[in-house]
Specification:
By secondary structure, the protein is α+β, with helices and mostly antiparallel strands. The chain is built from 2 helices and 7 strands; from the N terminus they run αββββββαβ.
């Protein structure tokens, strides 16, 4: 009987590991199909049905150069801001640039739970 339990536990572990590997593979594939690169942010806020980000700008960054990607996670959603176009200008904005999207623009209902996935970037000191 003990041997049967060991075999059953090993089989369950094998199935779990295979499922985990398949999920990781899908996550890598989906990340590869997303546009642009993940954008480090100085700060982000979710307030009054808006997602607000402060990002690096060398003087030419516009809202259209960034794309918010919203994914459902559990009972809420996560947003990841991705940069589509590099800012190659030479007039760095010491406080970065504020960009915002309404929940309506993001396809979210009012009051939705939303968390930010972008890495934080230390702001450059004001000049």
């Amino acid at each position: 009987m003990r041997r049967c339990l060991q075999i059953a536990s090993l089989a369950a572990l094998t199935v779990s590991l295979a499922a985990c590997a398949a999920m990781q593979e899908r996550a890598v594939e989906s990340a590869a199909t997303l546009p642009g690169q993940v954008e480090p942010v100085y700060a982000a806020a979710i307030a009054r049905d808006h997602a607000i980000f402060w990002v690096t700008s060398n003087g030419c960054t516009a809202k259209e150069d960034l794309r918010p990607v919203v994914t459902e996670v559990g009972a809420g959603s996560e947003i990841t801001l991705r940069r589509l176009k590099d800012d190659r200008c030479r007039s760095p904005q010491p406080n970065g640039l504020e960009v915002r999207w309404t929940f309506e623009e993001l396809g979210l209902p009012p009051g939705a739970r939303l968390s930010v996935r972008n890495p934080s970037q230390v702001a450059a000191p004001a000049v």
